[in-house]
Write a structure and sequence with these properties.
By secondary structure, the protein is α/β, with parallel strands linked by helices. It contains 12 helices and 14 strands. Strands 4, 5, 8, 9, 10, 11, 12, 13 and 14 form a 9-stranded mixed beta sheet that branches. α4 crosses α12. The radius of gyration is 21 Å and the shape is globular. The structure holds adenosine-5'-diphosphate.
Amino acid sequence: MATELDIRNALASLKGPDGTTPFLRSGVLGGVAIQGEKVYVSLIAEPQNAKAIEPLRQAVEDQVKGVPGVSGALVTLTAERPQGSAPAPGPKAAAATARAMVPGIKHIIAVASGKGGVGKSTTAANLALALKDTGLTVGILDADIYGPSLPKLFGLSGKPQVRDGKIMIPLEGYGVKVMSIGFLIEEEAPMIWRGPMVMSALQQMMREVDWGTLDVLVVDMPPGTGDAQLTMAQSVPLAGAIIVSTPQDLALIDARRGVAMFKRVEVPILGVIENMSYFLCPECGTRSDIFGHGGARHEAERLGVPFLGEIPLHMEIREKSDAGLPVVATDPDGPHAKLYRGIAEQIKARLEGGAAPRTMPRIVIE
Ligand code: ADP
């Protein structure tokens, strides 16, 4: 197993953010935590400097990955300096690292919508499965605390097991780890949650769950853009957000609010998905644009955010979702699974900072 000294030695050759001060003396190293073959490093940076420090973050990750005995490295940014320390190692630093991120989870992404009923949860569930199909390890967290629907979508029931009196073991559906408040409460129980309770429930479901090692945790957000959603967007270390909208004008106004909300808390928009985009008659093959069509694509272009794709309004999607048999898992060769996988590929590419986006963000001058 690598030691902290090994990690520090590997980082000794790097320069700090100013390009001249040795990295280890630049004060940017928050902490190092080692769990078996996985190493977690936190770098201290103000949120507005996140972009500028990204090459350094990547360089640190590469160096750490090269240390013998390390199989995975996760380097995150935190605005918090470990208490009473210059770049100090040890348990305090590790605690700060744990606050800033969820250890073992590489990317957390939100699936959000400006309002309810647009198919956000259906999209989140199928996207999680499609991301898994691209070779990633995936979990999904139902943060839609007002109307948790992931248990139904994944056909799961029962309570999660608890380890050490505190850590919940997520359930698993079609190879994806699933956690939902729906597992913990009766379906008929009144869901009157006040803001702070929602927040602590979410934090608990994210941090006191044995997610293991995940490439992506998909968070199915509560619909809307109110205070609860804003606080949630702020308190979860999100790598990006996906906005689901239907094509009609009214839904688009809400989707626009969603984009604005994430921009306000500096969460990158991974893209917009148009759900219930068009209807293909299963009998005659005729296409009808029930809610209009192309509105979300147009809106995404106007807002300068990527457009990820269109999912049709189709009976199979509804029937399978409601029966706990999501199309991506149960009809993987069907046309709908292909659409979700196409979107998942784009998300994966964006998360890994690789391939060029299909729709280049445009600069819009208003
Ligand atoms: P939200 O999370 O936005 O409230 P849901 O995912 O619960 O929405 O979807 C609402 C209803 O619409 C569900 O019955 C679901 O099966 C159905 N639905 C979602 N997307 C589609 C689609 N593309 N085609 C047909 N039905 C859909």
